[in-house]
Structures are given as C-alpha cells and as structure tokens.
Amino acid sequence: MSLDYVVSPEPEVVLPVVGTDQYFPVRRIYCVGRNYAAHAREMGDDPTRDLPFFFCKDRTCVLPVAFDKASELPYPTSTEQFEYEVELVVALKSGGSNLTLEQAKAAVFGYSVGLDMTRRDLQGAAKKKGRPWESGKAFSNSAPLSPIVPRYDAPLMAEAEVLLKVNGETMQQSNLTHLTWDIAEVIVKLSEQFELRPGDLIMTGTPENVGPVRRGDKMDAVVEGVGSISLTVV
C-alpha cells in the first residue's frame, strides 16, 4: 500500500561506496567530542580518559564530496567564526546495544574522510549558557563527507595520519594512535547510550589546532589509507 504524505518526504541521503555501484544510506551521524588529548587541552578540558561524550548531526547536514573532484562549501549564515575539524568517519553495517569489543569491530563497514564544520561562536555562546550545541554543529553542509571506502579495501593502520591543510599550509596533523578512545571503544561506549543501526556514521574526533576559514580558502583533508578531499569555501 502506498502512503499518502501531507508533505513530500525528504530524499534519502546516500554516499557512494568506492569500487562498487552501490551506495551507503546515511541514517544518523554521531560525533565524539574531544577524543584527542591535545584538542581537549586547547578547548579547555582535562585530557585524561574521561568517558567519551557524544552529540549528533542530522543526515541533512551531509555534503557529499568526491575524492577526485574539488568541491565548494558554502559559508553558513549567522556566524563570523566558521571552523574546520578534520576527522576519520566510521560507517556501520550493523548495530545493537551494549556491544562487546568484538561485536563493535565486526559492525564496521568502512571509512570516510570527514569535516565537522562548526559555527564556533554559536557553539561557544550555547556552552556558556548550558544550552544544546545544535546551532553550532548541526546546520546545512556542516558534514562534508567523502565516499565510503569498504573496510576490506582500507586496512586502516593504527598509526594512520589525519591531516588538514588550508591554502596549502598544514593546520591539523596527528595520527590514530593519539585517539583517547579507539574506534572499537568508541562504538562500545556509544552503544551503551544509543541503539546503533546499520547506516549510522561516527565522526571519531579531531586533532588539535582547529581554526577558522573564510570565503576563498581551500581545505584539503586527508586520512591516510582512506583518501583525501578538497573543498573551497564560497
């Protein structure tokens, strides 16, 4: 039976799967806050292994970005402090609650290169008043994402580099050994608070030295073993 909608439903949000003609349907985007010790310090936090905390972006925040093509990123409204955060993104093929480490590892379908773009001034104002972060984090095009590279095509090294350049200058550079909570641990902790589902994405945290971009700036984001994407702010 076909459904009679009172308004037209939003189209599905998908990302291409590298090496196939298939697509990955995005369900929900979970983000891990301050999962690199040096970034925690620059944001005024204690870098010890506190339990990870999470926030979400809506799937309508996704801006698909091809590996082999320069893309444009619109400068958003209502901000004068538009900042980059490069991240390894994990795509899930299965889910559940209270997963074990082995179940968490088995749930990974593949990886993407992502940017957690942030209206930092709006986020900062919300934090000062103890309000939610959505205005600073969950806006249109705030999640530029590369195609998904299946795990079997990307045997991600524990020491894989995470890098961001702005106008050719390296601004963020670290590697996955500096994650406070590694990929499997993040999935386990997330599954204790949410029932994970196939199609979920997890942005695993950003290294230190986040900073602003302006119209005309070019960003190159790299996760070693996954790929690189290029965006110009317009």
**Secondary-structure element pattern, one letter each:** EEEHEEEEEHEEHHEEEEHEEEE
Count of runs of 4 or more consecutive helical residues? 5
- Give the biggest beta sheet: 6 strands, mixed
Distance between the termini: 44 Å
Helix content: 10-25%
Uncertain segments are none
Report the C-alpha radius of gyration, rounded: 17 Å
Strand element count = 18
Q: Write out the strand line-up for the largest beta sheet, numbering strands in chain order.
A: 4-3-15-8-9-12
Task: Report on this structure.
This protein is 15% helix and 33% strand. It is built from five helices and 18 strands. The radius of gyration is 17 Å and the shape is globular. It is α+β, with helices and mostly antiparallel strands and 234 residues long. Strand 1 (14-16) and strand 2 form a beta hairpin. It has a single domain (14-233), classed as Fumarylacetoacetate hydrolase, domain 2 (Alpha-Beta Complex). It starts with 13 loop residues before the first strand and ends with a strand. The mean pLDDT is 93. The longest helix is centred in the last third of the chain and has 11 residues, at 183-193. GO terms for molecular function: hydrolase activity. Pfam families: FAA_hydrolase. InterPro entries: Fumarylacetoacetase-like_C, Fumarylacetoacetase_C_sf.
Keywords for this entry:
5 helices, 33% strand, metal-binding, alpha+beta, Fumarylacetoacetate hydrolase, domain 2, Fumarylacetoacetase-like_C, 234 residues, hydrolase activity, Fumarylacetoacetase_C_sf, Fumarylacetoacetate hydrolase family protein, 18 strands
